[in-house]
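FAQ: What does a ligand-bound record look like?

Like this one, built around nicotinic acid:
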Amino acid sequence: MEVASKPIFNTLNRPALYTDFYELTMAQGYFLSGRKDEQACFNYFFRDLPFDGGYVVFAGLGDFLEILENFRFHDDELEYLKEQGFRPEFLEYLKDFELEVSIDSVKEGEIVFPLEPVVQVRGNIIQTQLLETLLLNILNFESLIATKAARLKYAAGERKVLDFGLRRAQGFGGIQASKAAIIGGVEATSNVYSSFVHGIPASGTMAHSWIQSFDDEITAFRKYAEYYPDNCILLVDTYDTLASGVPNAITVAKELEEKGHKLQGIRLDSGDLAYFSRKARNQLDRAGLDYVKIAVSNQLDERLIKSLLGQEAPIDLFGVGTRLVTGHETPALDGVYKLTSVNNEPKLKISENVEKITLPGNKKLIRYYDDRGRFYGDGIMLKEEGTVDTIYHPYYPAKHTKVTDFESEMLLYEVMRNGELTDGVPTPGDSAKYAKQRLEKLNAEHKRFDNPHIYKIGISKKLMDLRDELAQSLKKNN
Ligand SMILES: Nc1ncnc2c1ncn2[C@@H]1O[C@H](COP(=O)(O)OP(=O)(O)OP(=O)(O)O)[C@@H](O)[C@H]1O
Ligand SMILES: O=P(O)(O)OC[C@H]1O[C@H](OP(=O)(O)OP(=O)(O)O)[C@H](O)[C@@H]1O
Ligand SMILES: O=C(O)c1cccnc1
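The answer part, i.e. the structure of the complex:
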């Protein structure tokens, strides 16, 4: 079959077919069986923490809400669906489609944990179903990369981390990856497109090609410094880092000083980065250039950054590409979108694996604080419940915690009501600020890379009983 190709960027303006085929066949099925006005509730949650880590930084809400603004079916899309065999009466329904769903979500940048209803979509069953793939595609990817960025930043501490990943990203996902990286805590990106469309800070150094293009290294350095005297990071490893690169950078730094400027830094991109950074720091300091920063890159990740700083490498800035934007070594966040009620009747998915039985009903999510104002644990309960005294381990109810003495906070906000945004789209800057504040409230034992302490998640007795009773009756009937 021949498919006319369409510019990929149109996806943002025309998201309705950015979905899996079965969403449309199910939607048509609901329509044909006269169920189009049934009210459904779906929950977005994940089960496994990526990177064997202790938390997830939630991201993607801004892009999701923005894209929903354009969710409608255009004539050529309806024509395509007609060719795929969809019925005229359903296509007529889609022609007049206007999004009317309501969405509860935690804030972008929130720290979230397994099983939590991070996003809850309410509305008619056709509309809520049709959003599944789009929502999962955006939220799973951006949350994965924001989480990776937070881990890199945790390893780097006060030192800066730059995103260098566009060239190694999974295609156009690089646009989202760079934004998510900023939300997770990275300071700036080399990705100009993402900077342009998302209003995030762009930054960069120079490539080996610049230096290779000149007859000698010093001329390459001088020329760059001439054009960018206040924003110049010289790549020093093209020929011989310590015998040529750093001495030439020192010469240029001195020339800049004479003209009233300061060399910003040097970048190391190969070899033993601890050894070379120490030697380079020594050479720079001996030349009176203690203000010149040292940037490093080369297949870095959070563990390598931690290791380099453990080796007391005098590094000020880490450029991270591949392993940031590809979410190395977790290819995807396993977030799912599960039906939890139809016409206010709670729904459940049973599994042989008890940990895969879903939590039914329309919910709320509460965070409890310890006496130092740090996150103590989270409670998942039914929306209609009042104050809850005790939260129970989702699978081992003998493990429970009394929560009456803790300060608490509701985490879900209605971000869309009947298809209208309630409070605009979160900006990456605001989400990054929020993620930073929230990560400060998360205890270090949940942030460490090796065997992080498991964060306490509990469910209310009512929710547990509802789940167990429903599971029993479904098993009897099926
Ligand atoms: N002191 C260090 N401790 C731990 N890892 C390091 C240290 N220095 C560098 N690394 C990392 O080790 C890897 C080195 O990669 P590799 O052996 O391919 O060397 P290279 O310098 O990239 O060689 P080249 O670029 O010349 O091919 C990179 O991921 C780099 O970040
Ligand atoms: O290693 P990553 O974490 O993926 O970071 C990005 C890499 O991309 C660049 O190398 P590349 O060889 O593509 O170009 P260059 O000439 O600028 O070094 C840069 O020098 C980094 O090494
Ligand atoms: O600006 C840089 O130094 C840069 C940008 C992309 C990839 N690697 C390095």
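Follow-up question: can I read anything off the structure? Yes, for example: The longest strand covers residues 375-382.
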